[in-house]
Amino acid sequence: MQFGIFTVGDVTPDPTTGRTPTERERIKAMVAIALKAEEVGLDVFATGEHHNPPFVPSSPTTMLGYIAARTERLVLSTSTTLITTNDPVKIAEDYAMLQHLADGRVDLMMGRGNTGPVYPWFGKDIRDGINLAVENYALLRRLWREDVVDWEGKFRTPLQGFTSTPRPLDDVPPFVWHGSIRSPEIAEQAAYYGDGFFHNNIFWPADHTRRMVEFYRKRYAHYGHGTPEQAIVGLGGQVFMRKNSQDAVREFRPYFDNAPVYGHGPSLEDFTEQTPLTVGSPQQVIERTLSFREYAGDYQRQLFLMDHAGLPLKTVLEQLDMLGEEVVPVLRKEFAVGRPADVPEAPTHRSLLAAARKETVA
């Protein structure tokens, strides 16, 4: 099972000081956080993709390529690649290039994002969102798997005899997760192709997450990729920790109360009760995270959001120390207990390459 962090790259004032970091400071902080993730033994760093203030990660491949050059083991991912408004040809080429530079330590999470105006900015209609996701991803798969592509669809100009370059590393495309909070159509798409399904459950109650994951697992089996239990599932999460839980609540409360997404809404206590947000001691984070298996089953990837709402870099790095030293080692051990032998590990370039070579020999 993989453990890691994801960032949305928000540039938010620190409510305790009133200071807003510059865009440069925020970008550099994201890099520092990724390097810290590898240092403390995490498996994955994932960045979002946004094209509007107050967010800065408009070019994930630029950032991940830079991080790839400064890391050795970390899997570099996206927490959203906008399959609806990006050209599938550009996605195919950009991420294949990143694959080569990172020696295969790359995967992607396809999504539609949560910013409606992004569609007209890139010449698209939000009413076509699901159809764009379906058509663009179908083309992307072909571009990665076929050397020469002839294609015609509804949303972009036709392709005749087109070859995207570079080709995927070892002829093995990056593994794809399909991320969705509320759209069963995206869970269906993930199941159809036998791809991973990432439910970013940070804003939703357990019952909703259970329904989405169960639907994906059933459809994964329906399409003949394996049993429901063998489907590839990832979950989100939010945590803030201090040794003493009361200290954690007291320190995090002003950040929660003023957060861009849920600030000035439900109370911290209500939100932690109704969603996976955990504010407390490392042991409380361990217990809450282990409970995810009760409604999601044995899953493959757990990512935490830790650097948002104006939290200063120093605080985030302290959080990562606790996550890597006190929380994740226990989670690795406990999640392994009772895990059936036929439940697959999280896909990596190495495992996908081994499977491809086995199929070739067979």
From TrEMBL:
Gene3D superfamilies: Luciferase-like domain. Residues 1-295 form the Luciferase-like domain. This is LLM class flavin-dependent oxidoreductase. The keyword Oxidoreductase applies. Keywords: Monooxygenase, Oxidoreductase.
